[in-house]
Amino acid sequence: MNILIVKLSAIGDVIHALPVSYALRRKFPDAHITWVVEPTAYEIVKHNPCVDEVILFQKKAFKTIKGFRENFKPLYKQLHQRRYDISIDLQGLFKSLAVVLTANAKRKIGYIDMREGSNLISKPIKGSHHSGHIVDRYLDTVKILGCNTDNIIFPLENTAEETEYVNTLLQSRNIDKTAKFIAFAVGTNWVNKCWPTKNFARLSDLLAKHNLSSVLIGFGKNDEHKAAEIMQNSNAKNIVNLVGKTSLMQTAALLKKSQAVVGGDTGNLHLAAALNIPAIMLMGPTDPVRNGPYRQMHNVILAGHDCDGCWKRTCRKNIDCLSAIKPEQVLEKILKIEMFKHEK
Questions:
Q1: Considering the domain 160-343, what is its CATH architecture?
Q2: SS3 (DSSP) at 27
Q3: Who contacts 65 (Cβ-Cβ below 8 Å, separation ≥6)?
Q4: In DSSP terms, which residues pair with 280 in a beta bridge?
Q5: Which of 134, 184, 191 is nearest to 323 (CA)?
Q6: Can you tell me the distance from the alpha carbon of 270 to that of 257, in angstroms, rounded to the nearest whole number?
Q7: Does domain 2-143 have CATH number 3.40.50.2000?
Q8: How many helical (H) and strand (E) elements, i.e. helices and strands, does the chain have?
Q9: What is the mean pLDDT of residues 312-336?
Q10: Greatest extent of the chain over all pairs of C-alpha atoms, in Å
Q11: What's the DSSP call for residue 233?
């Protein structure tokens, strides 16, 4: 049997879909499972032991006529190297519709919230969690194939090289194996989901009083700018800026060594939740029921506006949404984590 998973982006969304691959592998141990993904989240899928093949979908390359002409044929050849029995559209957008149509599996299914015409090509599967967390909505999709989803596993495996790199990196910043630190995911891809840098700086100062270091993580220029502001405004001696210093899976290895992770609704928080690391998620514009840290709803802190859950990238009321969440609230949540109870 040949199975095609189409989940292209973003990092957090691809992480949410990982248990689907585990459930499929348990049900169909001899199947060939292919995953189509965009470059941003490629690393998450690359070392997934439940996936046999990863196909890169270069979305940006298809935005021009020239790019389409140059890239469609190679993608077509890759998707037609085998005849797919089932395609599973977990993206539910026009771009995934295009991939599904190109692959043309015998049976096409998708998750409940498909739109942009994708629901006309793949059959939306409505399960018992259709109003629940997105992880469970994805898993409902493969229950129709007979998959058992009682044991929910996120197949995320680090290489020895990734772990060693992180060990060396932390030691070079004077964080030894016994040091306790909180990771700060400093940015998100929505302005409305970002916690102010002054609040991160204040939290680092508060954590220092409890002998806890702060380690800043993130990717890209925007996160680098935010990290620089945090470093400038923090008085803590034990704060370390590692933004841009780790790849996605190196970040996973780093998170495994942390005591908790703090940030908005973003990929690194979902990565922490998947690794069963306490993920203190600061939320306002998105819905915790759907997008909160999986199996960690107790670690959500809501902004508390009457418009929470608006799903807007930028605030129409010109409110700095998450600024309503104070560093003291986050500190209290951190100190409630079991491993810190003796320090209170």
A1: 3-Layer(aba) Sandwich (3.40)
A2: helix
A3: none
A4: 262
A5: 191
A6: 16
A7: yes
A8: 13, 12
A9: 93
A10: 63
A11: H
Cα(first)–Cα(last) distance of the chain, in Å?
55
Strands 53-56 and 213-217: unpaired
For CATH 3.40.50.2000, list the domain ranges present in the chain.
Answer: 2-143, 160-343
Angle at 328 between CA 276 and CA 274, to 5 degrees: 10
* Contact by Cβ (8 Å): 246, 217: yes
Amino acid symbol at 189: N
DSSP category for residue 234: -
The pair phi, psi for residue 50, each rounded to 5°, is -90, -5
Please tell me whether the overall predicted TM-score, pTM, comes out greater than 0.85 for this model.
yes
Instruction: Quick: pLDDT tens for 58-113.
Output: 988 887 877 778 889 999 999 999 999 999 999 999 999 999 999 999 999 999 99
Q: How many angstroms separate the CA atoms of 325 and 128, rounded?
A: 33
Structure tokens at 113: 């919230």
220's tokens: 């890209």
Amino acid of residue 235 = N
Return the pLDDT at 344.
47
